[in-house]
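Form 7-S
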Amino acid sequence: MLTTSFNKKILITICSFSIVGCAANSGIVPMGNNTYMVSRQAATGFSGMGTLKAEAMKEAYQECQKTNKFVNVLETIDAKPPYILGNFPKTEIRFKCINEE
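Output:
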């Protein structure tokens, strides 16, 4: 009985790590001419788009702060529901780092 319970815990732990490992984050990708792209994708269809966008915007903000500049969002591209069969929530933000105007 103890072995079965322990095996279940191990299996649940392994499954949890494999699901978390499927989330994608591009990091900051330079696109030339002071333009960058960052994307975030959830590991499942149950994550909210708002959280993904907030995380991507935070990363963009941190990138621009390195040079004391501000984020100017050029374009956002979001995955469209339904979030099934690998079409999980995803956001892509293209931005420039600009001086304050």
